[in-house]
Amino acid sequence: MDFQVVVLAGGTSKKLVPLVSQEVPKALLPVANRPVLSYVLELLEASNLKDLIVVVEGEDAALRVSGWISGAYVDRLHVEVAAVPEDVGSAGALRAVAHHLTASDILVVSGDLVCDVPPGAVAASHRRHGAAVTALLCSVPVSGPSEAGSSGGKDKTKKPGRYNIIGLDPTRQFLLFVATGAEVEKDIRVQKSILRAVGQMEIRADLMDAHLYAFKRTVLQEVLEQKNSFQSIQQDVLPYLVRTQLRSEVSSSNGFVQAEENWNEKDATQKIQNLVRGTIPSFHERYAFGPNGSAPGFDTHKCCVYIASKNKYCARLNSIQAFNDINRDVIGEASHLSGYSFSTHNNIIHPSAELGSKTTVGPHCMLGEGSQLGDKCSVKRSVIGRHCRIGSNVKVVNSVVMNHVTIGDGCSIQGSVICSNVQLQERVVLKDCQVGAGYVYIVWRFSGVLRRLFFDKEWTLSCALLLLMENPFFKGRLQ
């Protein structure tokens, strides 16, 4: 389709600490024991979009992502991994690789997207309308936008903290207004000139920007060059294009809309008067479909949307709450995305996994390669990674346990995330917690009171206990 694809894979996102680290960047966080980036790559591959630029923040993270891609997708995809500085934002990342973009149209996809909407459908809609930008919009996840963030794996009853406010034309094909992020928490104001131009606008608060966009390359590069302060596609680039589409008859010699600063109050007043007098066609008349989907005679750019049907799954892994939700969904209601074959019990237990006597692994669960569970364990709606060692009488509910984790007898894990190489001592109870990679969680008693402590992976347990015993407060009290 002559589309160049850019996948924005992030780096070590602060929103996902302690799940991410130098060893495990965001793109490699596991969803159903697969790196989250694999879901986007295979979605693109299914649409025959195989020539990709994957942009990663930070040199170390880029090396790790590149190493994984070269092993997992050899002979399947042509991928160039580009490292950019950390915290540049999505627009900054695109700006950094803009000199590599040569195709007439660019498809920009967030690397944390897990969905089953074909990118090819968005690209085809973009071409059909001759749009400057086409954004994929999906129904808001049941648990609310992942920006709301919550540190647990609770059931999906949490109310969302923020919505996108989207304004659409009556055909629901053109994007007329957008408010995102902190804007939504304020009073929303819509310019009268927009309302007069469009005649009608449908306001929606139930749609999520999926961070999958098709751009006309010349328009995208022009905005990135002219607006050096823009950092976010969603919060800066897209709203700017939407605001200027009704002003685009004021254009420079190269056909691109002039900078916003050149649109003054006098011009706006005159154009509103012309609209009222009927000397300028209305928005819908200007954008009425012609034989080739365009409206000849007007130098304008179109901002379009592709709205996925409600039965499509679409979520972004951009918070800890979203990490829990997506892992649970991909082994539950969205199991078709996992790439695995489920058993008659509606779960996935690797043939090499071992289960003790009277141990149960319920439906919508996954047990990875080489993992072992002791006697009388119970696993419900959870993902357990590879080569884990789990003792007896352990309960794991609504949780994600990554690789090489050791869990002692009698532990209870609920609504939590346990990263790789963690060790939990016997009878540890975790609820709505996240344990970073390599930590040791111990339980001890002094003066009859139960105490808990985490130790970093670089400390041995014996050294940590020795330091505690030398502390005057603890000396003589440890048992």
Account of the protein in words:
With 479 residues, the chain is an alpha/beta fold. The chain folds into 2 domains: 3-316, Spore Coat Polysaccharide Biosynthesis Protein SpsA, Chain A (Alpha-Beta Complex); 349-470, Hexapeptide repeat proteins (UDP N-Acetylglucosamine Acyltransferase, domain 1, 3 Solenoid). It has 11 helices and 32 strands. The strands form 7 sheets. Strands 5-4-1-6-12-8-13 form a 7-stranded mixed beta sheet, with helices on both faces. Strands 16-19-22-25-28-31-32 form a 7-stranded mixed beta sheet, with no helix packed on it. Strands 15-18-21-24-27-30 form a 6-stranded parallel beta sheet. Strand 31 (440-446) and strand 32 (449-455) form a beta hairpin. The radius of gyration is 26 Å and the shape is elongated. It starts with a strand and ends in a 9-residue tail after the last helix. The relative contact order is 0.12.
Keywords:
479 residues; alpha/beta; Spore Coat Polysaccharide Biosynthesis Protein SpsA, Chain A; UDP N-Acetylglucosamine Acyltransferase, domain 1; 2 domains; seven-stranded mixed β-sheet; 23% helix; elongated; disordered C terminus
